Amino acid sequence: MLIDRIQTVTPEHSRSHIRFPFRLPREASKLHIHFAYGPKALEDREASRRLMEECISKYIEPERQPIVRGSMERYYPLTNLMTLSVDDPEAYRGACHRHDPEQRLFLSGAEASPGLVKGPLPAGLWTVTISLHSIVTDLCEYRLRVWAEEDEA
């Protein structure tokens, strides 16, 4: 196992990134990434309403605020959103901007999960970056696991 990390984040972590560098000791045939987080949704409608009101007041022009408030219902429930990107020792290998709270991803020489770039998996310093776009629940726990397969010789 190259990475096996469980961590809890809060709304203060929104709009930030957490990098997880790891060393791939030798070239691999396949790299696996399992990422899961929860809870996905803020089920408290009153807390959701307060967050939306705060954002409307902060980011929407005053003359448009009544229109936006009139359509708030379609945004329930508010959700946490975290996404992943991957870099190998030489280049960016892609991003998985999915809304799924559990993702099983892979890279290999012949194929890769959508959003990631297939190709050789060289030894060296790799990085998985978690982008915390929005954390709306008081606490949100995630687990990131990364492991490699080597060719059988």
Short structural summary:
With 153 residues, the protein is mainly beta. The chain is built from two helices and ten strands; from the N terminus they run ββββααββββββ. Helix content is 14%, strand content 45%.
Would you spell out the secondary-structure blueprint of this structure?
Layout: E1 3-9, E2 16-24, E3 30-38, E4 41-42, H1 45-59, H2 65-70, E5 78-79, E6 81-87, E7 92-96, E8 102-108, E9 124-134, E10 140-149
Antiparallel strand pairs: 1-10, 2-9, 3-8, 3-10, 4-5, 6-7, 6-9
How would you describe this structure to a colleague?
It contains two helices and ten strands, in the order ββββααββββββ. By secondary structure, the protein is mainly β. 20% of the residues are buried. A hairpin with a 4-residue loop joins β6 and β7. It starts with a strand and ends with a strand. The chain is elongated, with a radius of gyration of 19 Å. Helices cover 14% and strands 45% of the residues. The protein folds into two domains: 108 residues, Jelly Rolls (Sandwich), CATH 2.60.120.380; 37 residues, no CATH class.
